């Protein structure tokens, strides 16, 4: 299938550093400050990874250590084509059943005949039900009445929660994700499950401008949630429910406090291995 | 229950920013690990250190499960942070561009003790100070080790 993930091509810089101590660490620290994302130590130095869209060639000139006369640094670079690195796991995972009512499975599994049968081929996107947070969000959705509601699935990953929302009676679902792999993948999964009321959108919280929903789902992480809760609050209708997940129990208090500031009140939460899925209501 | 180790992967990833692209993807993917699971966990555990480069050692088991240990940033990184300097000195031996106190060195040494080959905080401090000097950073002021 045509893949549109060209904006997520990474470039690998293979640095030879002499001597390696302490310059490997200094180089990583300095590259980290100018947009390089991750590193791996090698026999001769480090490999550093940066998005192709970052202008690394120009940036390197500004990195102090590159002009340091106490160490010698040389590098080679290579583009890494978009690849589904998770393919090995994806070709052979087990289906997940939640409360005997909802099953998330791959196309290569037999349907088991449960009430909500969701087929997901994840392609390096999050949301297969294996993770505690997805599992609990599915549990929440099975307990909530979303019939005839307009739903937002923020950070939708594979689209699994949005797809379930339609199966549970939602009349309209916006599934938004900032990651291109997820966007492409959710489109495929929506088609595969014939849930045509789910609109998949590429982007972040800026996509919510001028929109309003009866029910919001957001399984992301603490920092993104804390940052975007005011935006969600604005887009949620009075009396509407919002489900949050993607953080640990110790972070629940921060999420609660931020919600309070935006007029959203804590209702209850589920907990699994220290992960939380909380339910809040806009007063 | 004892589990057989398939491999140990050592990477440096920014807190809160793990994603399945290289080097995380290729390092874990080939072993059959669910990369998405690792990213979700790593990011949730490092929300307080978002954007900081953190060393992480991931143990992958034969049954494709994994666990990982996140270490504190390397001494060199902490030294740069302590002196609030964007980079080291271009000419470390000639032009000292920053100064770090022995008290700051002690904090870094205490933090890095588990990763350094040092028996006492004092010897760890000397190692960290050596790193600082080699980066062109002056060490003075505060309580020096005996």
Q: How is this fold's topology laid out?
A:
The complex is a heterodimer of chains A (283) and B (146).
Chain A (H helix, E strand, L loop, with lengths): L9 E9 L4 H11 L4 E4 L3 E7 L4 H7 L9 E9 L6 H4 L5 E3 L3 E4 L10 E4 L12 H12 L6 E5 L5 H8 L4 E6 L2 H13 L5 E5 L10 E7 L2 H14 E13 L3 H10 L2 E9 L2 E8 L1
Parallel strand pairs in A: 6-7, 8-9, 8-11, 9-10, 11-12
Antiparallel strand pairs in A: 1-3, 1-4, 2-3, 5-6, 12-14, 13-14
Chain B lengths: L4 E10 L9 H6 L5 H11 L7 E9 L4 E5 L4 H8 L15 E3 L1 H11 L8 H14 L2 E3 L7
Parallel strand pairs in B: 4-5
Antiparallel strand pairs in B: 1-2, 2-3
Helix pairs in contact in B: 3-4, 4-5
Could you describe the 3D structure shown?
- The complex is a heterodimer of chains A (283) and B (146).
- Helix content of chain A is 28%, strand content 33%.
- Chain A has 283 residues and is α/β, with parallel strands linked by helices.
- Chain A folds into two domains: 6-87, Alpha-Beta Plaits (2-Layer Sandwich); 93-282, Vaccinia Virus protein VP39 (Rossmann fold, 3-Layer(aba) Sandwich).
- In chain B, α3 (75-82) packs antiparallel against α4.
- By secondary structure, chain B is of the alpha+beta class.
- Chain B has five helices and five strands; from the N terminus they run βααββαβααβ.
- At the A-B interface, α1, β2, α3 and β12 of A face β1, α1, α2 and α3 of B.
Briefly say what this structure is.
In chain A, 28% of the residues lie in helices and 33% in strands. Chain A has helices at residues 23-33, 56-62, 87-90, 132-143, 160-167, 180-192, 222-235, 252-261, and strands at residues 10-18, 38-41, 45-51, 72-80, 96-98, 102-105, 116-119, 150-154, 172-177, 198-202, 213-219, 236-248, 264-272, 275-282. The longest helix of chain A is centred in the C-terminal third of the chain and has 14 residues, at 222-235.
